[in-house]
Amino acid sequence: MLEIVLAIGNFMNKGQRGGAYGFRVASLNKIADTKSSIDRSISLLHYLIMILEKHFPDILNMPSELQHLPEAAKVNLAELEKEIGNLRKGLRAVEVELEYQKRQAREPNDKFVPVMSDFITVSSFSFSELEDQLSEARDKFSKALVHFGEQDSKMQPDEFFGIFDTFLQAFSEARQDLEAMRRRKEEEERRARMEAMLKEQRERERWQRQRKVHAGNALEEGGEFDDLVSALRSGEVFDKDLCKLKRSRKRSGNLALEVTRERAINRLNC
């Protein structure tokens, strides 16, 4: 994964500080602080995880493989060596007291010397193992510093492993962020599809209503036309028109007769 981080860093710094052969471990946590210029909620760490998901899915199991990091991040060799030194002094003080008691006269029921002798024997063996473990831990930690190019630093295990522990925590949180983003996107797409379906359904219903209205109007117009054709075929329309014509002629004749009468009366009066 660190190789991928280095490749991304060289690409981003292309033409400026690109072509680096490595980077300081302390720079690892700056990935989460590098935000996108388009979406400030997206960091370089999110982009790194997306690359891993697509091309290197096995690396995503890294947190489970480094499950002891939180405990390692609590270890400080300087403090541990100090505590080991205090144990050494305490054990030496017990040995001195035991040697003194051996030279003293003891009562028959006094079991201090035999009990403490057994204690010193067991404790010395356990303490020797503890010193060996401390020496082994110191050597392995020195090799780890060399492996990551930090041999010149004076970092303690709590600082060194704390960097990786912080990174893994941010790594897990970023994965959760991506999952939440995907769920929100899926929900938005589902909502958009539902809205599109509802809109299409409303348009279909509106079109069907308009179609029914047009069909009703056409049916009424068609009914009137059918009535006219039927009247023409039966001759009823002509009978009705003939009656109207006779009534009109009769009214015209009556009107002309009245006008003639008025003219005759006017002449007599003159």
Helix coverage percent:
over 70%
In whole angstroms, how far apart are the ends?
Answer: 133 Å
Average residue-wise pLDDT: 81
Our count of domains comes out at 3
Overall geometric form: elongated
User: How would you characterize the largest beta sheet?
Assistant: none
Which structural class matches the secondary elements? mainly alpha
Spans with pLDDT under 50 lasting ≥5 residues? none
Rg (CA only):
53 Å
The fraction of residues in strands falls at under 5%
Count helical runs. 8
Give the second-level CATH assignment, the architecture of the largest domain: Up-down Bundle
The CATH topology of the largest domain corresponds to Methane Monooxygenase Hydroxylase, Chain G, domain 1
CATH homologous superfamily grouping of the largest domain: Formin, FH2 domain
Notes on the structure:
This protein has 270 residues and is mostly helical. It folds into 3 domains: 2-68 and 157-187, Formin, FH2 domain (Methane Monooxygenase Hydroxylase, Chain G, domain 1, Up-down Bundle), CATH 1.20.58.2220; 77-147; 245-270. It has helices at residues 2-12, 44-55, 62-65, 69-72, 77-102, 112-147, 157-234, 236-269. Helix 5 (77-102) packs antiparallel against helix 6. The longest helix is centred in the C-terminal third of the chain and has 78 residues, at 157-234. It starts with a helix and ends with a helix.
